[in-house]
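Give me the fold.
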Amino acid sequence: MRIVLLGAPGSGKGTQSQRLVERHGIPQISSGDLLRAAVVNGTPLGLEAKKAMDRGLLVEDNIVLGMIRERLAEGDTPRGFILDGFPRTIDQATALNTMLREVGKPLDAVVLMEVDSAELVRRISGRRTCADCGRVFNVFTSPAAQAQNEPCPKTGVPHRLTQRADDNEATVAERLRVYDEKTKPLIDFYAKQGLLRTIPAEGDVDEITRRLESVLATAQAPAARKPAAQQPRKAAKRGAKTAAQRPRKSKLKSTKAAKTARKSVAKRGKARPGARKSTRAAAKKTVRARRPRKTMRKTSVRKKRR
């Protein structure tokens, strides 16, 4: 299962990604997490990213793609992965497709999670994140009180919930505008490739998960059957067509040769009446020499039967 989750901020991508990770044992690959980890660890790509970030510039796409490529080479990705936060533009999506083909891990599906704008504002303003493990909670959809009853997997104590600085109503409108301008064109991009699946992402969280699992199941099945079912048939058709045409071509050649030989015999016979038998014999030899082997075999068999 190799997928990208698309949706506006607050559409529930993080919540559903966590559920897919737990159910299928595949990693969630966040471009933001990769950047932060690379900078902290001082990797070559992390150092390049840090230079751009220190100058207040966006990190170049090839650096992010390099980090994703390195992440896909790790041991927990053969069964699949979930890409989060990347791609965000058409250029990034095109470059991602190329890179995934190179490493032999093309996407199975791109799922768009649709949510009404008013609901998005409500969700974003109620979102809380654990400062230690990064798990996302929401005071509306998944009560923050739940975090007090579950130990953080990193610290073993209740989650320390924080609210992002941009998770407030004042900044939500601008974030949605940027999403519409830059990320929404990806919907048409992936729809043309036949990868796009759309689910309504409002309502009960468990129901949304069932919808997501359903579209992912249908997206994977055809991709697994296609190579085995189609390729041999095409090869078989080509083989049958060639075999059927060969006899016709040989017949055409032998017919033309016979006509040419008869004309030459007629001319020679008019010029030398006494040599008609010898010229006919010579014509027969010419026709036999020009015929394909298969035609000669059929002729010899007929003579034996007579």
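The mean pLDDT is 77.
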